[in-house]
C-alpha cells in the first residue's frame, strides 16, 4: 500500500466517523516545573480537549519476530521463538512467525503506513540472531544491512527510529550453549551485540535495551508459557532475572562507549502497575510502596543500583547471587525509562501489615478487552508513571507500549469498525493527558501496534494493530482506530 492510498483510506474512515480535520490546532507549552503530585493531593479531572505539550512525541511500535518473517534468509540464525513456535501445542492456533507480516521484504510499504498516521517516531526491535546468528562471535553483515535500510527509509520519511535491542528473540545458540539468561555469559554477549549495533546503526539516536523483563523471564523461564519453555525453581529464576539486569547495565555502558555522542539509552518494562483502589492519601502511599517492592527485581535494581530489603527478605535463600561491582554496573544511569502499560495489575489499599499495603482480589466480573488478561482500567496510565517518577526521580518517561486487541471483524463494506479499541484509546489517552497536565514527565507515546502480527502464544488469533493484516494475501487495511489515532496526532489533542 502506498502512502497516498493509505491516506485516502484514512480520510474515508475519518469521514465515516465524523472525526474531521482540525488543521491549525495549536498546542500549548507544558511548563509544569514539578514532575510529582503531592501524596495528599486529590487529582483533578482531565480536559480531553486540551492539547498535549507542543513537543510531545507520538509513535507506534512493533517487534522483529512478530512481523519480519524471512527467518531463514540472508544468514539469520535461529531464535528461541523459532524453536518454541514449532513445538506442537505451544502456540494456540499452531502457527509460527516464519512468514508473519513479511516486513523484511515489505518494510518500505510499512513505513508508508507509519507516515500516513502522521506520527514522528517508530519503535522497532532488532533480531539479535539476524545480526549474530550464533549469539556472539562472527556478525552477519546482511542482517545489519537490513536494519540500516529500514532506518534510512524511516529518516527519509521524517520518522525518528527508536530501536529495541531485545524483544524476546534470543539466539537459540546461546540457549543451547550456556542456558540463555541462566548464564552471565549471555549478559556479556548482549553487551558485545549492543556495542556492535550502536557503532554501526548510526541513524538511531535512542535505544531501548530490553523489553518487558517481567514477561519474558517469568513466562519463559519460570512458568514455561513462553520460549524457551522452562520451569526453573525460584532461585534459578531470580538469578536469570539478575543476569538480564546485568545485561542491561553492561549494554548501557557499551552503547555509551561505542555509539555516537548523544545516543540515549534506557529499558522498556511492563511495570507491575499498582493503583490505589480508592484515592486517599493512605492508599496513594500504599500504592507507592507496592510499586517499589513489586518492581524490585528489575526496574528497582536498575534505577536504584540495589535490591530492596523487602525483595531480598521475601526471596530469602532464593535471592540472586551478586557482587557489589555487578550492582554498580546494573545501576548505571539511564537517559529515560520506557513503561509498557496496558492494564492495572494490582489495586491496593493501605494495610497495617509489615509491607504497608494490601493487594485486592479481582472479581470475575471485572471488565476486560478482547484479550482476557487486558483488564480495562484507564487510570493505570495515570498512576503508574506518576508513582514511578516519584519513587525513582525519573525525568523522562515514554509510554513505550499501550493498546488493545479487538475482534476486528470486516464489515460488509470492507471496513473494520473497531469501536472498542477507540473507546480504550480515548480513555487511556485522557488519563495520560491528566498525568502530563500535573507535571508527570511523560514525553512520548508509542501505540501498540502498527499492524496485526504474530501475537506470541496466541499466534494470529489476537489482533492489536491499527492496520488489519490478511495473513494470506498480506494486504494491510486501516481500521477505524487508525483514523482516530491520526486525528489525535494531527490535533495533538484527544478531541471531544
From TrEMBL:
It comes from the Bacteria. One of its GO terms (cellular component) is cytosol. One of its GO terms (molecular function) is beta-glucosidase activity. It catalyses: Hydrolysis of terminal, non-reducing beta-D-glucosyl residues with release of beta-D-glucose. Residues 25-51 are annotated as: Disordered. Substrate binds at residues 66, 167, 211, 342, 448, 455-456. Its EC number is 3.2.1.21. GO terms for biological process: cellulose catabolic process. Keywords: Carbohydrate metabolism, Cellulose degradation, Glycosidase, Hydrolase, Polysaccharide degradation, Signal. Residues 28-39 have a biased composition (Basic and acidic residues). Residues 1-27 form the signal peptide. InterPro entries: GH, GH_1_N_CS, Glyco_hydro_1, Glyco_hydro_1_beta-glucosidase, TAT_signal. Pfam families: Glyco_hydro_1. The active site is at 212 (proton donor), 401 (nucleophile). Belongs to the glycosyl hydrolase 1 family. PANTHER family: GLYCOSYL HYDROLASE, LP05116P. NCBIfam families: BGL. This is Beta-glucosidase.
Amino acid at each position: 500500500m502506498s502512502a497516498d492510498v493509505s491516506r485516502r483510506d484514512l480520510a474515508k474512515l475519518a469521514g465515516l466517523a465524523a472525526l474531521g480535520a482540525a488543521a491549525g490546532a495549536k498546542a500549548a507549552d507544558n511548563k509544569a516545573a514539578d514532575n510529582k503530585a503531592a501524596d495528599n493531593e486529590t487529582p483533578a479531572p482531565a480536559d480531553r480537549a486540551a492539547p498535549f505539550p507542543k513537543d510531545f512525541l507520538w509513535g507506534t511500535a512493533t517487534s522483529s519476530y512478530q512481523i519480519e518473517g524471512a527467518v531463514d534468509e540472508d544468514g539469520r540464525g535461529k531464535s528461541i521463538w523459532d524453536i518454541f513456535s514449532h513445538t506442537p501445542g505451544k502456540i494456540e492456533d499452531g502457527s509460527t512467525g516464519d512468514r508473519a507480516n513479511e516486513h523484511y521484504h515489505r518494510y518500505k510499504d510499512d513505513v508508508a503506513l507509519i507516515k500516513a498516521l502522521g506520527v514522528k517516531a517508530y519503535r522497532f526491535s532488532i533480531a539479535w540472531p539476524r545480526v549474530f546468528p550464533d549469539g556472539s562471535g562472527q556478525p552477519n553483515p546482511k542482517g545489519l544491512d537490513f536494519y540500516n535500510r529500514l532506518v534510512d527509509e524511516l529518516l527519509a520519511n521524517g520518522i525518528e527510529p527508536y530501536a529495541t535491542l531485545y524483544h524476546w528473540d534470543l539466539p537459540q545458540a546461546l540457549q543451547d550453549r550456556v542456558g540463555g539468561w541462566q548464564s552471565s555469559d549471555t549478559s556479556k554477549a548482549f553487551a558485545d551485540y549492543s556495542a556492535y549495533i550502536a557503532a554501526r546503526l548510526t541513524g538511531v539516536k535512542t535505544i531501548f535495551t530490553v523489553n518487558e523483563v517481567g514477561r519474558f523471564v517469568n513466562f519463559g523461564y519460570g512458568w514455561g508459557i513462553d520460549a524457551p519453555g522452562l520451569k526453573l525453581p525460584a532461585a534459578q529464576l531470580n538469578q536469570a532475572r539478575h543476569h538480564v539486569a546485568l545485561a542491561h547495565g553492561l549494554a548501557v555502558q557499551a552503547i555509551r562507549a561505542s555509539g555516537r555522542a548523544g545516543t540515549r539509552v534506557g529499558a522498556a518494562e511492563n511495570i507491575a502497575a499498582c493503583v490505589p483502589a480508592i484515592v486517599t492519601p493512605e492508599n496513594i502511599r500504599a500504592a507507592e510502596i507496592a510499586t517499589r517492592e513489586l518492581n524490585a527485581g528489575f526496574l528497582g535494581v536498575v534505577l536504584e543500583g540495589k535490591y530492596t530489603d523487602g525483595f531480598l527478605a521475601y526471596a530469602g535463600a532464593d535471592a540472586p547471587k551478586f557482587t557489589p561491582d555487578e550492582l554498580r554496573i546494573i545501576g548505571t544511569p539511564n537517559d529515560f525509562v520506557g513503561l509498557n502499560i496496558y492494564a492495572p495489575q494490582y489495586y491496593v489499599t493501605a494495610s497495617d501489615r509489615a509491607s504497608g499495603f494490601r493487594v485486592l482480589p479481582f472479581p470475575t466480573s471485572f471488565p476486560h478487552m478482547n484479550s482476557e488478561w487486558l483488564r480495562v482500567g484507564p487510570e493505570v496510565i495515570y498512576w503508574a508513571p506518576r508513582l514511578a517518577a516519584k519513587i525513582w526521580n525519573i525525568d523522562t518517561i515514554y509510554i513505550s507500549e499501550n493498546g488493545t486487541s479487538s475482534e476486528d471483524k470486516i464489515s460488509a463494506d470492507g471496513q473494520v469498525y473497531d469501536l472498542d479499541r477507540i473507546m480504550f484509546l480515548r480513555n487511556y489517552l485522557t488519563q495520560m493527558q491528566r498525568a502530563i497536565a500535573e507535571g508527570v514527565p511523560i514525553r512520548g507515546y508509542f501505540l501498540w501496534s502498527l499492524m496485526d502480527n504474530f501475537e506470541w502464544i496466541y499466534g494470529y488469533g489476537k489482533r492489536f494493530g491499527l492496520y488489519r493484516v490478511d495473513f494470506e494475501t498480506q494486504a494491510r487495511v486501516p481500521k477505524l482506530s487508525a483514523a482516530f489515532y491520526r486525528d489525535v496526532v494531527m490535533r495533538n489533542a484527544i478531541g471531544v
